[in-house]
Amino acid sequence: MVNRLTRYAQIARILSKYGFGIVLQELYPENRRPDFLKKDPEIESDDVYRRIRLAIEELGPTFVKLGQILSVRRDVLPAPLIQELQMLTDKVKTVPYEDIQDVIQETCGVEDEFCVFVDHEPIAGASMSQVHKAVMTDGSDVVFKVQRPDIREIIEVDLTILENLAERAENALPYLRPFNPVGLIEEYSKQMRKELDFVLDGKNAETVALNMKEMPGVKVPKIYWEHSGTRLLVLEYIEGIRIDDVDTLREKYDLKKLADVGFEAYLKQVFIEGFFHGDPHPGNLLVNEEGQIVFLDFGMVGILRPERRISYTKIFYAIISNDIDMLIDTLAELGIKIDPDDIENFKDEMYVIYKQTENYKMDQFSFGDTMNTLTSILQRYKIVMPGSFMLMIKVITMIGDVGSNLDPEFDIIGKTLPYLNKLVISSVFSAESLDDARQTVTRELLGFPKAFRRFLENFSSGRSRMEVTIPEFRELNDGVEYLAQKIVYSVLAVGFMISVALIAPTCTNPFIEWQGYLLMGGLTGLALTLIKLLSLRPKK
Q1: For residue 365, which of 142, 222, 360, 442 is within the disulfide window of CB 3.0 to 4.6 Å?
Q2: From the CB of residue 243, how many other CB atoms can be counted at a distance below 10 Å?
């Protein structure tokens, strides 16, 4: 049983040990600092960001996971702190098999009935779980990912404390309010509770496997659902070499091909599927005997809804192609606006990034450094990006580093730009775009009669009055005429878009298909132009 007051005392002691007792004093000024809350003089001499990382590691799994999530917020946190947070490890001493055996039996029943062998020595261990190799009665080699005892209770207490600390911080430290600490912890609490549910972990794995089924160079372990539950996940055991063990991989595989396959897999996950593996550190990526890249651990995934995916694609494309106007417009679509007085300076700084990468040499270029520069600019102009965007940037940066490690000539921008260019163009003609246009026009057309009828009812009942002079009547007439033109244009536009949508699927030849798009687009433009010309009349 985890006692909340005892846990508060532990947290206070650790923060004070690393020289952060002042934080407690700021948050809880009504409490006197107990004598046992003493700082360690030797530790305090360390760099402040290193002390933050060491304190987080000692605070335990809840805080470590929070630090790992914050490590993607390059737009909010300083670069030196980001570097320290990226070093966080949740590896801890494993517990004896006897301590987790009950979890296995609760989920699967008596061990001898479903299993021939379980290795009591774990092959991997983390703060929330540990992994044991086993052999099922049908001869299948599997691994048991077993949740550590009492971890749920510990995390729930820690989350309650974090929520209290965030509320205190927002009230006591006004300069933190723009970063929304309460909202951040609420989102983090949801993420942690998801990670405690191993069923969701397994479903995430199956979703990625389904999305990657057309890529033979990628593999996701099979889930044995009949033996799995919320605290135990039974997966196919796959022998493999870590993706960062370059010397061993070089002896058996084509490293350039591995780099290309891995990067393409992530581009597809992010920009096509909108559902991606969110923790691509080398320990979660193996290369099996067949040369396939094996993805492990799906507790953290990124989810991008279609409209977000299109926006993020445009932002990313705009950054690496130096289309700053597109960047600013797309940010505005997301509700992120730059102070008009800062726009010219912002454009200048973005242009500098572009010039630095325009003629880059691969042995001198670091995509990670470029992203650090970008996020520093975002910080300066108080641009706070959505967490899902920053997770996407983190994943692309990490997998880019993996690619460069495998292949020193790996060109992340050269491989990404054509991909994004194709996606930006196709998004204009996508089924979603056509459907959105159709729905918008339909709503306008359907809404007009209702609004007009309401106006007439109000007018006839005396609830609305209208005074008309001759000049105003002409303006009203012009307005009605303009509205009628808009309706005609909208109907015609929808008609032509529906025609495109109906005709395009019947084209099997890609060249003909694109010719069809161009032809229909030209006809649409011509028709609207003619209608506009015919509708014009000389002013009296």
Answers
A1: 360
A2: 25
Ordered DSSP codes for 363-399: GG--HHHHHHHHHHHHHHTT----HHHHHHHHHHHHH
Q: Does residue 70 register a pLDDT over 90? A: no
CA count, 13 A, side-chain hemisphere, 342 = 14
- The residues pairing with 301 across neighbouring beta strands, listed in sequence order, are 277
pLDDT tens digits along 151-199: 899 899 999 989 988 888 888 777 777 677 888 888 889 888 888 999 9
Single pTM value for the model: 0.69
Cα(275)–Cα(187) distance, integer angstroms: 18
Q: Which residues contact residue 263 at a Cβ distance below 8 angstroms, ignoring those fewer than 6 apart?
A: 399, 400, 403, 410, 412, 415
For residue 94, what are its two tokens? 């494993």
Return the half-sphere exposure (C-beta side, CA atoms, 13 A cut-off) of residue 244. Answer: 10
- Residues 469-484: what's their mean pLDDT? 51
Q: 205, 224 in Cβ contact below 8 A?
A: no
What pLDDT, on the 0 to 100 scale, is given for residue 511?
Answer: 42
**Tokens at 210, concatenated:** 């389904």
Q: What is the predicted pLDDT for the residue at 442? A: 52
* Whether pLDDT at 494 is above 60: no
Residue 316 and residue 309 in contact, taking contact as beta carbons nearer than 8 Å:
no
CA distances from 120 to 117, 235, 416 (A): 9, 17, 45
pLDDT of residue 508: 46
The DSSP code sequence of 4-48 is: HHHHHHHHHHHHHHTT-HHHHHHH-TTSPPPTT----HHHHTS-H
- Domains in the chain with CATH codes: 4-90+155-181 (no CATH), 91-149+197-237 (3.30.200.20), 242-428 (no CATH), 450-535 (no CATH)
Known catalytic residues are 279
